[in-house]
Q: What sequence folds into this?
């Protein structure tokens, strides 16, 4: 009985959720996707890359960080590449003592194959 009560209390103090989605292609925030799609460009696969971006909240009113998808993509492509293909996106939200919003954070993770657009 004591272990059950401790487990329930732990669940109340640490709560989280996540969601996952898939995308075909995403580009860096500075790229012009319409020009890439309007004319045929060849590309070179660089390999599998991962990136993440997090935003933190203290007492529910003091945020810092950037958890946007574009920031996660830019972090994944910081070592090279112009775009990602076959992308998996996961968003997570975690709260510690969620009733009072003492501390919580949200993260966006991306994983995909980095490609480099070849000049014509």
A:
């Amino acid at each position: 009985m004591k272990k059950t009560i401790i487990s329930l209390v732990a669940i109340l103090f640490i709560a989280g959720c996540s969601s996952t989605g898939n995308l075909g292609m995403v580009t860096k925030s500075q790229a012009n996707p319409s020009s890439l799609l309007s004319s045929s460009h060849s590309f070179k696969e660089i390999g599998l890359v991962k990136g993440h971006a997090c935003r933190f909240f203290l007492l529910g009113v003091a945020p810092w960080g950037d958890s946007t998808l574009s920031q996660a993509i830019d972090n994944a492509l910081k070592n090279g590449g112009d775009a990602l293909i076959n992308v998996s996106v996961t968003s997570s939200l975690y709260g510690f003592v969620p009733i009072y919003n003492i501390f919580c954070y949200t993260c966006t993770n991306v994983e995909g194959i980095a490609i480099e657009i070849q000049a014509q």
